[in-house]
Structure formats: structure tokens, C-alpha cells
Specification:
Two copies of one chain form a homodimer. With about 200 residues, chain A is an alpha/beta fold. The first copy, chain A, is built from eight helices and six strands; from the N terminus they run H-H-H-E-E-H-E-H-E-H-E-H-E-H. In chain A, helix 5 links the parallel strand 3 (about 75-85) and strand 4. In chain A, helix 1 (about 5-15) packs across helix 2. Chain A is globular. The mean pLDDT of chain A is about 90. The interface between A and B is large, with 51 and 51 residues. Chains A, B: This is Recombination protein RecR.
Chain lengths: ~200, ~200
């Protein structure tokens, strides 16, 4: 459609997740009129991320060294491992400020449709980290794939006699009972706690 | 939040139009796991656009030479000039295949709130192009700013005795009368044509 360089940019932008043809065009025109230094900073940030960022040898989190900030932090409780699907889940949990243990990033969840079985996930590496661990907290997503992965891990951990736990399912804080779906509400009933 | 390079990339992506913090994070994680060659192609496309693409000296359209493809094309009718707000509007009109004249990109519309007056637009350059022009088609957007700009241009062109026209307003083809807003419907009545 457009002349060479602009169309190339629109094509490349359109290949990013969540960027449709209209957004790609809009971003490309923004870049055309944007300050050159700003655009070069973006181009450079892309290059630097691919050159510098790798995955932690220990837990699979993103890192700029062989191991990540969390694995390097001496204040973390090394007897707790929280298992998540993706590196971004680590950040989500860190933001709560309520967990001081280590993490283990699986790199996805068991999903036969996508061809992801236990062998494609970093489960073997998790099993190699279980010495002196008092609890593994399974924090995979509360959906079919995440639950399947949690069940699989729970069985593995049981045979290895390592205590495993799963994040609670229930009503979201600040939510409205009226708008809760029936499955969540059912889980909230199952997980109800006696007061005092 | 994240380690240096990843957070830098999220910040740069988040500064793009239509990319919120969540999308920026999603794109950044996509880039982390994407093929290095693909990411380098995107970084390069950004650089090339800033280095190679400029604006046509004649009409203000995007160009990779001093003048754009359309101004260089000897088959175009040089006695017609279609005035648009932005370079992307040129492409929109080109796609219809129903116009074979030249363009003039104003670089926006008159908008006092944004501090855009006639002096900030490429109106002076338009007035310098009117020799041997038989019609100027004003194709600014059909909104307040576009209409104000069209009215301003129409007056200027009248004093210079250059015929000016404005794109028709009316019902969109394939639309449904029921869903037309009252202003569009009113314009469709005003612009009605006798059949045969």
C-alpha cells in the first residue's frame, strides 16, 4: 500500500500481539512524525532486550545475569518455591508483597491442543530443586490448563513427599456477589472458613 | 518493576499511541521469547523509516525521494488537487481507485484548542500550487475541525477564483437508515438527487 519503508514498518508492527492493521498504521504514522531520538530509543530497547535478557538458570524468570534478582537475593526464603506459568506471573505475585520465597517458571501449562505436555515445561528442573524445600505453592492459572498442570504437579510432589499447596479459589476482593460466575461461587462455598 | 532492559522496553512501547501498560507488557514478553531475527527486523524498520522517509516537497505526502510517488507519476491529472488533513488520508482515497489527480496534505485541521491555526497548516504551500488547476477537492474530515478548515479554504480559493468542491455528505453505502445519526440523515436530505 505505502511506499517501501513505511509499509515494512506497518508489517513488522502488525506482527506484534494485540496490534491489528489499523493500530500498526497508526503507530507507524506516529513514528513518522515522532522525534528521531525517541524512535531510536525504542529501536535500541528492542535490540538490548534481545542481547541482554535471558532466563534464570535456576528458576526460569527473566534475568540479566545467569540467575535472576530474586534467586540472587539473600533475604528470600529458599525453603518455599512458588510455581507459575510465565515470567510475568512472578511480577504479579511480587507486587502483592506477601510472598518472600523463590519462584519456578514452568514456561506454560499442560495443553494437549497446543502440543504442550509435561516434557515441554520446566518440570524436570523443578524436581531438581526440591532439596530442603518445605512447601511448593502451585500458582498456575485457575483455568483448565492451569488446573491440569496443578494436578499433575501435586501428584509428582506427593510421590516425592514434598508438601504442595494451591492458591485459594473464591470471590475476588471488592467484587460483587451478584456478578460472580457460578463456578467461582461454588468454589467460594467449598472453601468457606468458620469465623472465629 | 522489571529488571532494567525489560522495563525500558515496556516504557518505550507504552509511549506509542494506543498501547497501554498491559499491552506494552504483553508485547515486551512476546519480544523476549520471539525469534531474534524478527525483533531485529522490527528495530531496523524503525530506524530505516526515520532515516529514509520524509515528506514530499510538493504535496506533503510521505515520500522516500524529494517528491512522492504520486507527484512523480506522469499519468496523474495535474489540474486536480485533493486536499486532505493527513498523509494516511491519501492512502485511503487511493484505495478507492476513483481519483487520478494530485494531493495536498495540510498536516492537520484548524483546531484552536490544539493551537492549530491556518499558519500551522500547509495552506501557504497549497496557494502556491494553484497555477493551471481546474478544481480543488476539499477532503478534510467531516467533523467540526475539518468543516472549519474546509470553510476557510473555500473562502481563500474563492478570492483566488479557483473552483473548489467538498466531498458529499450522506448515508454510507451498505448502511441502514435506522442506524444513521440525525445529522448525517439531515445532510442526506439536503444533498438528495432527482432520479433520472
Amino acid at each position: 500500500m505505502y511506499e517501501g519503508a513505511v509499509q515494512d514498518l506497518i508489517d513488522e508492527l502488525g506482527a506484534l500481539p494485540g496490534v491489528g492493521p489499523k493500530s500498526a498504521q497508526r503507530i507507524a504514522f506516529h513514528i513518522l512524525s515522532a522525534d528521531s531520538a525517541d524512535v531510536m530509543r525504542l529501536a535500541n530497547a528492542l535490540r538490548v532486550v534481545k542481547e541482554k535478557v535471558r532466563f534464570c538458570e535456576n528458576c526460569g524468570n527473566i534475568a540479566e545475569a545467569p540467575t535472576c534478582r530474586i534467586c540472587q537475593d539473600p533475604r528470600r526464603d529458599t525453603t518455599l518455591i512458588c510455581v507459575v506459568e510465565e515470567a510475568k506471573d512472578v511480577e504479579v505475585i511480587e507486587r502483592t508483597g506477601s510472598y518472600r520465597g523463590l519462584y519456578h517458571v514452568l514456561g506454560g501449562a499442560i495443553d494437549p491442543i497446543k502440543g504442550l505436555g509435561p516434557e515441554q515445561l520446566r518440570i524436570r528442573q523443578l524436581l531438581g530443586r526440591l532439596t530442603n524445600v518445605r512447601e511448593v505453592i502451585i500458582a498456575t492459572d485457575p483455568n483448565i490448563e492451569g488446573e491440569a498442570t496443578a494436578t499433575y504437579l501435586a501428584r509428582m510432589l506427593e510421590t516425592m513427599q514434598v508438601p504442595a499447596s494451591r492458591l485459594a479459589l473464591g470471590l475476588p476482593v471488592g467484587g460483587d456477589l451478584e456478578y460472580a460466575d457460578e463456578i467461582t461461587l461454588g468454589r467460594a462455598f467449598e472453601g468457606r472458613r468458620l469465623l472465629s
